[in-house]
Structure formats: structure tokens, C-alpha cells
Specification:
The structure holds 2 protein chains of 2 kinds. By secondary structure, chain A is α+β, with helices and mostly antiparallel strands. Chain A has helices spanning 2-5, 9-18, 23-47, 53-65, 85-96, 117-126, and strands at residues 72-78, 101-103, 107-112, 132-138. The longest helix of chain A has 25 residues, at 23-47. The N and C termini of chain A lie far apart (48 Å). Chain B has a single domain (4-82), classed as SH3 type barrels (Roll), CATH 2.30.30. Classes of the chains: A alpha+beta, B alpha+beta. The interface between A and B is medium-sized, with 18 and 13 residues.
């Protein structure tokens, strides 16, 4: 039993082959995984249409793969052109205690910690003016503000 | 309500990596990604300029694979450029 638990990837593949799983069924599995992934991406876009999908997947990956991830994310939050961006800057400061930088009069750039999928959802719920959220998640906290 | 272009483009993934031009012929870059209501276009290699453009601004996606906007370059720079 214990020896089964410690089996390597290759030995598991070999066992699968012995048990009658032919290459054609394994390739069918690959197709299925790809389809499921594409469906997942479509659903993610429907559920969080304002979030850059690369950022969403990065946060999801770090949060699930590393449960003690500190949630270090460099954000770019885009607002409509005709909005008072300083009011939004103040809102970000009150919420995350982070001073943001204004870019192109409609984008706030800031570095957040303890950011998770749930926190991202809350941010979008609380501010319906947000048009788009992009940026990058990093595994370790960094002083860099480059996005 | 869907715009005429939303009816014309059945699969929005087709416009990813395609060039975007304004009404007065300004090159805005290429489509990087497609959101629910907007597209993201980027211009330049190292620190690209980015634009968040409503799908309703697209007037044509022609047989050459070019996305054309209804606004001119100044309008796009002021209203849609975000980074």
C-alpha cells in the first residue's frame, strides 16, 4: 500500500498501460482535459468579465498551489475617462492602505498584498465604476512596481 | 443591445493579434485580448501602450483582417488609452 503511494509518475503510466489503458484512451483523456480547460476559461470570463484573464489565472494558481501565498499583486485598475480619478485614488487608499499612481488620467496603479480571488471579487462588487483590472501576481512580495 | 459589428463577428477570438486602425488611419497596435464588452489593444514591444476599446467602437473587421474603429486617433488617445 505504502509502496503504491510512493510510485513515480512513470511507474503509474506503466501501470495504466498494463491495466489496458491504451494510448488512444490516454489521448482521448488529453482532448477531454483541453476541452474542460477551454470551458473553464469561458466560464471564468463570464463570471469576471472585467478582469484580465492572465491575472485571474495567476492569482488562482498561486492561491491554490501555495496556500500560504501572501497575495502580492501589482494592479492596474482602469476607470472611465470622465470620472474623478482622485476620489478613486482615495478609495483605494482607504481600502488597501496603498498609495496608487495615476496613469493616463484613468488608471490607478498600485501594489496590493493579501489579494485573493475573493478579495478581487469584493473589490469589483464594491466599485461598479471599474472598467477593467489587469496587472501581475508574484509569488514573493517585491518592491518592484513594474507591471 | 448588440451593435451591428457584434452581429457580424461571430467568434471574437478571430480578431486577436489583428491590427487596429482608427478612422483617420492611425495605427493603434494589435488586439491583445477580448473582454465581454471591450477589447484590449497594445502598441509597441517593450513597454507597450495599451488601449481599452469598447466593442461598439469597431465599425469593420475586413477581409484583410484589419479592425477599424469609428473614432479618430485623438479621441482614441484621450478616451481609450490606459497605460
Amino acid at each position: 500500500m505504502d509502496s503504491k503511494k510512493n510510485m513515480s509518475h512513470d511507474s503509474r503510466l506503466a501501470d495504466a498501460a498494463k491495466s489496458g489503458a491504451t494510448p488512444s484512451t490516454l489521448s482521448a483523456a488529453a482532448v477531454r482535459i483541453k476541452q474542460d480547460y477551454q470551458n473553464f476559461l469561458k466560464e471564468a470570463q463570464l463570471l469576471m468579465p472585467k478582469v484580465d484573464q492572465s491575472l485571474l489565472l495567476d492569482i488562482l494558481y498561486y492561491q491554490t498551489r501555495y496556500p500560504d501565498w501572501e497575495g502580492s499583486v501589482a494592479f492596474r485598475v482602469v476607470y472611465p475617462a470622465d470620472l474623478d480619478i482622485n476620489q478613486k485614488k482615495e478609495w483605494i487608499y482607504q481600502k488597501y492602505q496603498r498609495m496608487s499612481k495615476v496613469e493616463e488620467e484613468k488608471t490607478l496603479k498600485f501594489k496590493a498584498i493579501r489579494m485573493s480571488m475573493e478579495e478581487l471579487g469584493k473589490m469589483l462588487d464594491e466599485d461598479p465604476d471599474i472598467q477593467y483590472v489587469t496587472g501581475s501576481a508574484t509569488l514573493t512580495p517585491t518592491d518592484s512596481y513594474s507591471i | 443591445m448588440t451593435s451591428p459589428i457584434e452581429q457580424k463577428i461571430d467568434d471574437w477570438q478571430k480578431i486577436v493579434n489583428k491590427p487596429v486602425f482608427t478612422r483617420d488611419g492611425k495605427d493603434i497596435g494589435v488586439v491583445e485580448s477580448v473582454q465581454a464588452e471591450r477589447i484590449v489593444a497594445t502598441f509597441g514591444p517593450i513597454t507597450p501602450t495599451k488601449y481599452l476599446i469598447p466593442k461598439s467602437s469597431i465599425v469593420d473587421f475586413d477581409e484583410l483582417g484589419v479592425v477599424r474603429l469609428k473614432e479618430d486617433g485623438d479621441f482614441v488617445e484621450h478616451h481609450y488609452k490606459f497605460a
